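step=encode ok
step=design start
structure_in=
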């Protein structure tokens, strides 16, 4: 047995409005979904490589033994930036200075 849709009218007004238009809300029983034919499945390319377990971000290879890592250089460059009072400057110069200082400490270059 099908149910008829119910209509409920509510009127809301605020103290600044002289009259408000009624707002109708309809509640009806959900209809059954219509299914469509199954969409074709994508076929993997022969040259495609599986990506399961890999992150989307490329990874940087580790530095040679004794070389400062990217994280160490970034941390030192940030220290240089802070020592300047976080004032403007050239981030590339900070990076190169940090790299130079860290290589001197480890005796790499």
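sequence_out=
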């Amino acid at each position: 047995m099908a149910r008829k849709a119910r209509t409920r009218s509510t009127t809301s007004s605020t103290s600044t409005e002289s009259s408000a238009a009624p707002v109708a809300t309809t509640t009806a029983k959900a209809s059954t979904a219509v299914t469509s034919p199954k969409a074709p499945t994508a076929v993997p390319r022969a040259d495609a490589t599986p990506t399961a377990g890999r992150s989307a971000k490329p990874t940087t290879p580790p530095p040679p033994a004794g070389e400062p890592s990217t994280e160490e250089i970034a941390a030192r460059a940030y220290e240089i930036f802070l020592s300047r009072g976080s004032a403007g400057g050239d981030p590339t110069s900070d990076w190169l200075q940090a790299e130079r200082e860290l290589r001197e400490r480890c005796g790499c270059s």
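step=design ok
step=annotate ok -> The CA atoms of residues 54 and 60 lie 13 Å apart.
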